[in-house]
From TrEMBL:
It comes from the Bacteria. Gene3D superfamilies: 1.20.1530.20. GO terms for molecular function: antiporter activity. It is a multi-pass membrane protein. It comes from Mycobacterium florentinum. Keywords: Antiport, Ion transport, Membrane, Sodium, Sodium transport, Transmembrane, Transmembrane helix, Transport. Belongs to the monovalent cation:proton antiporter 2 (CPA2) transporter (TC 2.A.37) family. The chain crosses the membrane at residues 58-79, 91-113, 119-140, 147-169, 175-198, 218-235, 265-283, 295-314, 353-374. GO terms for cellular component: membrane. It holds the Pfam family Na_H_Exchanger. It is found in: Membrane. Residues 14-364 form the Cation/H+ exchanger transmembrane domain. The keyword Nucleus does not apply. This is Sodium:proton antiporter.
Length: 384
């Protein structure tokens, strides 16, 4: 693909149907993104080479998709729920215990494979994915105190690891990344104050009514403006746009997301930019490198199994094993690690694909654990 025109857009839009087709297979519960990633692999440099992931326009569209995916993920975190906030202490304990075990496993893996990326592996294995796990729990109808507790755990781990990733992926840029993360946090906090004041004084509701009456979509335009501004700050300070999107999503979740805005965000993200990003990610991964470096296949498997094992430590604190495995789901953090690592040449050849292989194993484990948790719903709703 030498250029990026409407023919390419038509191809990408058509290929994006692979995700829903795979996800609709009965009884398998395959996450939507698996089909999109596989489609990208087939059409990218791993397969037929029909998609050029280095095309600047393709990269820009993918970055927009990544920012929107993380924005929507942030809005899914139930910050306003009193029950979830009450579950925070026990959830923090599980995250901390998981992190300790993940550090031990990461040091062993970095030494065994000679990569020197122990800090990165520790963050990866500790991370969870609110964007993946929360919708899975919702679709399966999982409820009860134990589910609320794991929801808080996933939100804490996801937020912490998103903040930590830019600091550990390249230790030489850690001070700059820390300043960038603080800048994004400050901008997000300022936007929260503005929205909170506007909400208390009724300005937000009047803007919503006016926009709805005249069909201006002013809330969507405002949020996209802030999202792209935060993404610009992130890029200038060498921080992943993942942090910008997730921070803004948390702000909207804290203030309260209007249903109309939620529908609009769902439409543009899930209908176009999100699938495009995952197709681009699949196209950018060079899985054939794993064949040239067989040890990296073992690294990917070890990272996936290590993440599941680290999260299963929650069983020691009374967490149902199915929910412990479900909390190991990874998406945004390994995606960002592979994306940043490949773009900045921070990873060894094939290492980015190994990170994604580990993430895919956690997604498979999450799918199985979610189905099992739904079957024993009465047991999983008991207090921990």
């Amino acid at each position: 693909m030498s250029g990026f025109g409407f023919d390419t857009l038509a191809l990408l839009t058509a290929v994006a149907f692979v995700g829903p087709l795979v996800a609709s297979l009965p009884h398998l519960r395959i996450p939507l993104i698996i089909g999109e990633l596989v489609a990208g692999l087939v059409l990218g440099k791993t397969g037929f080479g029909m998609l050029d992931e280095s095309n600047p326009t393709f990269q820009l569209f993918a970055d927009i998709g990544f920012a929107l995916v993380m924005f929507v993920a942030g809005t899914h975190v139930p910050i306003r729920s009193r029950e979830v906030r009450a579950a925070v202490p026990r959830a923090l304990a599980r995250v901390a215990l998981c992190g300790v075990l993940a550090v031990a496993l990461a040091i062993g893996l970095a030494w065994q494979f000679g990569t020197g990326h122990a800090a990165l592996y520790a963050v990866l294995m500790t991370s969870s994915s609110a964007a993946l796990a929360l919708p899975v729990m919702g679709s399966l109808g999982l409820k009860g105190p134990a589910v609320l507790s794991v929801t808080a755990q996933i939100a804490i781990a996801d937020t912490a690891c998103i903040v930590l990733l830019p600091l550990v992926i390249d230790l030489r840029r850690a001070p700059t990344a820390a300043l960038g993360a603080l800048a994004i946090a400050a901008c997000a906090a300022l936007f929260f104050v503005v929205l909170f004041v506007a909400d208390r004084r009724g300005w937000r509701q009047r803007l919503h009514d006016y926009s709805h009456k005249n069909k201006f979509a002013l809330e969507l335009r405002t949020n996209l403006l802030v999202l792209f501004a935060l993404a610009a700050v992130a890029l200038r300070t060498h921080v992943s746009i993942m942090l910008a999107g997730f921070a803004l999503g948390l702000v909207i979740a804290a203030v309260g997301e209007p249903r109309r805005l939620a529908r609009q965000l769902f439409g543009i993200t899930e209908g176009f930019f999100g699938p495009l990003f995952f197709i681009w990610l699949g196209a950018s991964l060079h899985v054939r490198e794993l064949g040239a470096h067989p040890k990296l296949i073992l690294l990917g498997v070890a990272l996936g199994l290590g993440a599941v094992l680290a999260h299963c430590v929650g069983r020691l604190l009374g967490q149902p094993i199915t929910l412990a495995v479900l909390s190991a789901a990874q998406l945004g953090v390994p995606v960002a690690a592979a994306t940043i690592g490949n773009e900045e040449n921070l990873l060894a050849p094939g290492e980015g694909s190994a990170l994604m292989l580990g993430a895919l194993l956690t997604i498979a484990a999450t799918s199985i654990a979610g189905a099992l948790a739904a079957r024993v719903q009465p047991k999983s709703t008991q207090p921990e």
